Automatic annotation (TrEMBL):
Protein name: Uncharacterized protein
InterPro entries: Peptidase_S1_PA, Peptidase_S1_PA_chymotrypsin
Source organism per UniProt: Psychracetigena formicireducens
SUPFAM superfamilies per UniProt: Trypsin-like serine proteases (SSF50494)
């Protein structure tokens, strides 16, 4: 009978789910809209195809069911984790996106997540994925800690006590097993990135303890990596991570800051990232995933 009902999808009846309720002994049918003509057509089909069932009573139960959509890095997520889109509100219905880095804890035990520091100062409201209702909807927290971006060791900010759970995961399902400091990632180390725009990039570290200067200020002891594809606007804050034997069990190395076209001519355009030990130093984090 379920096969017969499913055929109605080809007759412009929007059936989005079919299942069996074993407790009540009925077939449940999920429709995009609970229109009388849809329900009557399905009942008539069952009556014709399986008359022995209808003799025992009403074998069908109808409910409204939206079509399932596949989650992406830029979708709304019930949990917060590395590699997905977050945003700040610019006003007049506009927003600016960046990428969530990873879960962390302050020295006092406050749980939250790390993001790029150049998105905004302390008090900036953060949304996931984007603000709705002119800045009222999809709020997940505010930036609690972000010292001035000059002569720092990281371009990173901390959002504490967010409104959704933060989990030790990097998109899509990589488990964060630990953190890996810059002293443990010499040139030649393979690293990966998950950015909300570029997606997955990978490559090798080409330099450590690099001083990066731009309009935001000067960052000390940064790391340069030759990643492909090259990250772009919106990937700021994206987690940089490494793995050994299992690509789904990773260690966080840092977060994306910027790209540089000229600093390392032998490697072309490189990605500058703030190492996790620099982030810990600036933001007084407890070492390792919460």
């Amino acid at each position: 009978m379920i096969e017969n009902i499913n055929e109605l999808n080809h007759k412009n009846i929007p059936i989005n789910s079919i299942g069996i309720d074993e407790i009540n002994n009925v077939v449940t049918v999920g429709l995009e809209e609970l229109k009388t003509e849809y329900i009557e057509t399905i009942k008539e089909l069952v009556k014709n195809k399986a008359p022995e069932i209808t003799k025992k009573g009403n074998p069908l139960s109808f409910h409204r069911a939206s079509k399932l959509t596949r989650l992406s890095r830029t979708s709304w997520h019930p949990n917060l984790f590395g590699g997905i889109r977050i945003s700040r509100y610019l006003g007049s219905g506009f927003s600016e996106g960046s990428t969530l880095g990873f879960s962390a804890r302050l020295w006092d035990g406050t749980r939250g997540f790390i993001m790029t520091g150049h998105t905004g100062g302390v008090g900036t409201i953060i949304y996931q994925p984007i603000p709705t209702w002119f800045g009222l909807g999809n709020r997940v927290g505010t930036i609690d800690l972000n010292p001035p971006l000059n002569n720092r060791f990281s371009d990173a900010a901390f959002v504490g006590n967010p409104t959704r759970p933060v989990i030790n995961t990097i998109w899509p399902n990589r488990t964060i097993m630990g953190w890996r400091a810059s002293w443990d990632t010499p040139p030649g180390t393979f690293v990966d990135m998950e950015g909300m725009i570029t997606g997955h990039s990978w490559g090798i570290i080409v330099a450590r303890w690099y001083t990066h200067t731009d309009t935001q200020g000067t960052l000390l002891e940064q790391v340069a990596a030759a990643l492909h594809p090259i990250p772009t606007f919106g990937d700021s804050g994206a987690p940089i991570f490494s793995w050994e034997s299992d690509p789904n069990r990773v260690r966080v190395c840092g977060v994306v800051v910027a790209i540089n076209h000229t600093a390392f001519p032998n490697h072309g355009t490189v990605t500058i990232y703030s190492p996790v030990d620099g982030i810990q130093r600036d933001l007084t984090l407890i070492w390792g995933p919460p």
